[in-house]
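YCII-related domain-containing protein
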Amino acid sequence: MGGPVRGDRSRLGSSAWNAWATRAGDAIVKFGDPTVAVSPGADPSVGGFSLLRADSYESLTNLLEGHPHTATGGTIDVYERQPVAGA
């Protein structure tokens, strides 16, 4: 998730986040946490992460429609998890 996250939940109130989480349901693997860039060169605009499950990119974009983070001007970057063979 790119863009500022700190304060998003308080600005919108928890009702918007709870409504989105209810709609997302079992697709939420981990609701997520805020992040802070600490290593040199790290992108400070990445403000948090969530782990979501979807069958396709299209399904995921539908799931992310109305996400409270984008309602506050933030952006969401999508990365697919790639399991390590043999691990």
